[in-house]
């Protein structure tokens, strides 16, 4: 299963050839897949109308939507629908993401894909990962406030023997203890136990280094927090192996195999929620403190140019709002239009996308939670 990452965002931004249709949908959660199919069909009809409004003929619009419409008869897909669905369609791209995250129903047809609803997931604001580790196996879960799901990852070892090429570290330990001699048996057993513990840690560390390599490859470019779940003594060994920069200090202690995905998700959210809100509050307060210094902006046109050139470090954008206009990449000039015109893009979406691509932080908030009275507020790197 493909995970939403910055690389996916980059592909959607750079390779989508307009017109680009972006569709977001919340699963009605009625227990009846047909309700989700009905909602999806209605959104596709909205998309078809928008395509025709751009001048596309009926036959062309039907051909454009053909791949998406095939989902309507895929019963297995609808039976396994998570909380939210995101679909991206253009002449050269067709991508579907089945996410444990509720989206507001929305269809946008424009020259670029509309990506703002994804930013809570991509920026780490609304998503976290749990890594369950034991000597018997590895589990990776993706969670949000409302749901958690397990992720099948091909490049993670199934267990110690899969990672290191022998049955268990304990088999190696037996050799070291048994080979210690027979004289002074009590002291030998103690030395054997010490050596055994050292050898066991050595092999577990190698095992965890293999896991870490798979995790960092999979989550490359991610900002979402990672929470470790495992028995006490494994936490310190894994942290020695870890290179993922967003592993939280807090963890879930105990055998992760004893917990369901839902139970692990609930424990994970208790850890991650205060962390996420604290980070958001810190950057909002920093924005307020730095207003008037030339290192912040609440001007759309200025922030569009700053985001495109990599100047924006942190940006807050209002959810559910669009600001239509154009950006000239040759002159670095943005123009805001009071109403949507042919060829326009959502400039708020543009700001958030380019900030995220260039390593910045993006917070998508309701208008009443914005740190300024405008629909954008940005902090500059320089």
Automatic annotation (TrEMBL):
**What Pfam families does this protein map onto?**
baeRF_family7
Q: Which InterPro entries match?
A: Bact_RF_family7
User: Its domain of life?
Assistant: Bacteria
Can you name this protein?
Answer: Putative cytoplasmic protein
Organism, by scientific name, is: Aminobacterium colombiense (strain DSM 12261 / ALA-1)
């Amino acid at each position: 299963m493909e995970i939403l990452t910055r690389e996916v965002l980059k592909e959607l931004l750079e390779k989508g050839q307009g017109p680009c249709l972006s569709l977001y949908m919340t699963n009605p959660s009625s227990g009846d897949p047909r309700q989700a199919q009905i909602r999806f069909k209605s959104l596709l009809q909205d998309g078809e109308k928008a395509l025709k409004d751009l001048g596309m003929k009926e036959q062309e619009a039907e051909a454009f939507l053909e791949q998406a419409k095939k989902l309507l008869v895929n019963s297995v897909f609808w039976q396994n629908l998570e909380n939210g669905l995101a679909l991206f369609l253009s002449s050269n791209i067709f991508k579907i993401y089945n996410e444990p995250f509720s989206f507001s129903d929305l269809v946008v047809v424009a020259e670029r894909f509309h990506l703002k609803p994804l930013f809570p997931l991509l920026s780490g604001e609304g998503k976290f990962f749990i890594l369950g580790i034991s000597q018997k196996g590895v589990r990776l879960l993706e969670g949000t406030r409302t749901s958690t799901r397990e992720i099948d990852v091909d490049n993670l070892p199934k267990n110690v023997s899969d990672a290191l090429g022998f049955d268990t570290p304990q088999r190696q330990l037996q050799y070291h203890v048994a080979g210690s001699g027979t004289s002074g048996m009590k002291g030998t057993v103690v030395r054997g136990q010490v050596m055994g513990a050292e050898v066991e840690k050595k092999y577990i560390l190698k095992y965890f280094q293999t896991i870490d390599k798979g995790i960092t490859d999979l989550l490359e470019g991610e900002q979402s927090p990672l929470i470790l779940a495992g028995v006490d003594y494994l936490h310190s060994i894994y942290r020695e192996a870890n290179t993922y920069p967003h592993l939280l200090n807090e963890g879930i202690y105990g055998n992760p195999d004893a917990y369901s995905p839902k139970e692990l998700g609930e424990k994970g959210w208790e850890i991650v929620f205060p962390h996420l809100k604290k980070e958001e509050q810190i950057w909002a307060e920093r924005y307020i403190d730095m207003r008037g210094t030339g290192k912040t902006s609440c001007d759309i046109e200025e922030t569009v140019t700053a985001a495109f050139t990599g100047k924006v470090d942190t940006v807050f954008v209002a959810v559910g709002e669009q600001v239509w206009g154009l950006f000239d990449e040759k002159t670095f000039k943005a123009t805001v239009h009071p109403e949507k015109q042919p060829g326009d893009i959502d400039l708020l979406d543009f700001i958030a996308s380019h900030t995220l691509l260039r390593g910045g932080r993006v917070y998508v908030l309701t208008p009443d939670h914005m740190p300024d009275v405008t629909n954008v507020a940005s902090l500059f790197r320089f």
